[in-house]
Amino acid sequence: MATKRIGPQTVRFDRPPVIIGAAAVAGPEEAQGPLGHEFDQTYPDLTIGLSSFEKAERQMMIDACRLALRRAGITEKPPAVDYFLAGDLLNQLITASFSGLEIGVPMYGLYGACSTFSEALAIGAKLIDGGFADRVLCAVSSHVGSAERQYRYPTEYGSQKKPYAQHTVTGAGAVVLAASGTGPRITYCTTGKVVDYGVADPFNQGAAMAPAAVDTIEAHLRETGRSVEDYDLIVTGDLASFGYEMAVKLAADRNLRLAKNYRDCGVMVYDLSRQNVNAGGSGCASSAIVTCGHLLKEMARGRLRRLLVVATGALFSPTSFQQGENIPTIAHAVAVEA
Amino acid sequence: MTIREGTSQTTQQSLYRRMVLKAEPGPPRLRNAVMAFVSGGLVCMVGEGITDFWERVLRISHKQAADPTVATLIFLASLLTGLGYFDKLARYAGAGLAVPVTGFANAMTASAMEFKREGLIFGIGGRMFQLAGAVIVYGVVTAFLVGIITGIVRLVR
Amino acid sequence: MMYLKAFLVGGLICLIAQVILDNTKLSPGHVLSGLTVAGGVLGGLGLYDKLVEFAGAGASVPIASFGNSLVKGALQELDQNGLVGVLTGMFEVTSTGIAAAIVFAFLAAVTFNPKS
């Protein structure tokens, strides 16, 4: 009997797992954004002195893990955590897997495209509340150089982007979850379903993902009996400005008023008027570095008490969209409470 | 317009797609058009200048000078791509840099550079034509068809 | 005068491509391939060379001229060697562009690394 399930998509944790440490590392453009001062470490360039973007991304994930573990007071090597849950955007999860080699603890590699951050938090929290682990390290990353060459064009190729196109966030976020300790707690998680609302333009991921975000938010509120106002802040992962607009519209159609307390990490991470990022950020790191770098710190400062993180993922590959398929999307919600 | 649960998936998809297309912010069409016209025109004007230059230096006909001109423009575009300036210029110039032979050179150089880390054979060698290949393929197929058709027409006459 | 004509014709070809890019979901790859095909067809009809005569680099620098050159090479050898000439002559005129692009792309790739 699954006693912790309170609805078809939502579970409530009996002993809510605690975030005992978190860290965000970010690339140069993110460092120049409005949250630049919040990140635990920033890098002056995209390759950080390594020979490829992929190596740089891996180093960022390892750095984020190292910092989060230090925050959590875990200094052993290999770290005293039971599982490492990690994911990224690169084919065959090379960032996560190669980082796992370095971290050296039992590992599950996760893929939910840009929704991987809340996917990792949800699974980590379930492992802990289920009694399968005492401490879990979760990490995700993305990198503009490695993602662009895989999903779109070589970095030096000259092309004009449409205004709704997005810019992959460079960086990594890591969280240490524990059965006990001090810090904000993960109280509920709502697992998204894959949806397809017919968007096929790979440059318009925000619009493709907005329905997934609204579906999951709606399911979360319905199954927990909460309302939008119960949260100090609801953030989606990387809808960016156009996806945000579409999410607000779709939500209004379903009598959900997403307004003052609703924001999008892809919009927050850049200064859209000054930085050359079109509609805003995308990528696993978007939700991860904004949550780990900024929002969890705001909770520690007492400015936020209840937070709903809804990381959104576009589950397509270059193969699927070149073969003319739509872009299926997903969103997972995790409630974090001080 | 409303999209609710229970609406069939295809209706839902076409409703949402229409909603997206309606709200989608368009590119700055006028600015892009002016920039493409001016920058594309300038590239061609520079090309004309380079043709004059080679005509004089190499003492060849204006027509013959077209070949070294193309090579010169390709060299310049590859250099700008290598130095990391081409993509920044192209952001403003759009088709103005993509349509002249500079765009062809950029597509090849950017691909070759990007995949250099996969090695000299699979990376640079194998991927150089990843983007520019289409132009060659369709150019050659067109030339083949035009050639065959012309040949047949001449035979018939 | 030639400079002005090169500017106007070259600019116009780029303008057409830009308008297509901004008003459709076609990628630059689609549009450039389309221009090459258009250049080849115009070349087959003998029209593209007239445009080159009129506008010089304004017509010979845009990618459409690549299609035209391929066709021109094919037709030249068609005259001399019959149908086989279509294949043997194709790259006759246009080899400079392809050779230069391969060589310079290779050299740039060996020399530089992608930045952003």
Would you kindly provide a brief summary of this structure?
Chain B is an all-alpha fold and 157 residues long. Helices cover 76% and strands 0% of the residues of chain B. In chain C, helix 2 (28-44) packs parallel to helix 5.
Q: Strand order, biggest sheet of chain A? A: 1-9-14-13-10-11
Element string of chain A (H = helix, E = strand): EEHEHEHEHEHEEEHEHEHEHEHE
- By CATH, the architecture of the largest domain in chain A is named 3-Layer(aba) Sandwich
Helix content of chain B: over 70%
How many domains of chain A, as an integer? 2
Q: In total, how many beta strands of chain A?
A: 14
Instruction: Give the uncertain stretches of chain A in residue-range form.
Output: none
Rough shape of chain A?
globular
- Highest-level CATH class of the largest domain in chain A: Alpha Beta
Topology:
The complex is a heterotrimer of chains A (338), B (157) and C (116).
Chain A: E1 10-12, E2 18-26, H1 28-31, E3 41-42, H2 53-71, E4 83-87, H3 94-103, E5 107-109, H4 116-129, E6 135-142, H5 144-151, E7 167-168, E8 171-178, E9 185-190, H6 205-224, E10 233-236, H7 240-253, E11 262-264, H8 265-268, E12 281-282, H9 284-300, E13 306-314, H10 318-322, E14 329-337
Parallel strand pairs in A: 2-3, 4-5, 4-6, 7-12, 10-11, 10-13
Antiparallel strand pairs in A: 1-9, 2-8, 6-8, 9-14, 13-14
Helix pairs in contact in A: 2-3, 6-7
Chain B: H1 9-23, H2 29-57, H3 66-83, H4 86-93, H5 95-98, H6 101-114, H7 120-127, H8 133-156
Helix pairs in contact in B: 2-3, 3-6, 6-7
Chain C: H1 2-23, H2 28-44, H3 48-55, H4 57-60, H5 64-81, H6 84-88, H7 95-111
Helix pairs in contact in C: 2-5
Describe what you observe in this structure:
- The complex is a heterotrimer of chains A (338), B (157) and C (116).
- Chain A is α/β, with parallel strands linked by helices and 338 residues long.
- Chain A folds into 2 domains: 10-178, Peroxisomal Thiolase, Chain A, domain 1; 185-337, 3-Layer(aba) Sandwich (Peroxisomal Thiolase, Chain A, domain 1).
- Chain A has helices at residues 28-31, 53-71, 94-103, 116-129, 144-151, 205-224, 240-253, 265-268, 284-300, 318-322, and strands at 10-12, 18-26, 41-42, 83-87, 107-109, 135-142, 167-168, 171-178, 185-190, 233-236, 262-264, 281-282, 306-314, 329-337.
- In chain A, helix 2 crosses helix 3 (94-103) and helix 6 (205-224) crosses helix 7 (240-253).
- The radius of gyration of chain A is 18 Å and the shape is globular.
- With 157 residues, chain B is mostly helical.
- Chain B has one domain.
- Chain B is built from 8 helices and no strands.
- In chain B, helix 2 packs across helix 3 (66-83) and helix 6 runs antiparallel to helix 7.
- Chain B starts with 8 loop residues before the first helix and ends with a helix.
- Chain C has 116 residues and is an all-alpha fold.
- Chain C has one domain (2-111).
- Chain C contains 7 helices and no strands.
- Chain C is globular.
- The termini of chain C are far apart.
- At the B-C interface, helix 2, helix 3, helix 5, helix 6 and helix 8 of B face helix 1, helix 2, helix 4, helix 5 and helix 6 of C.
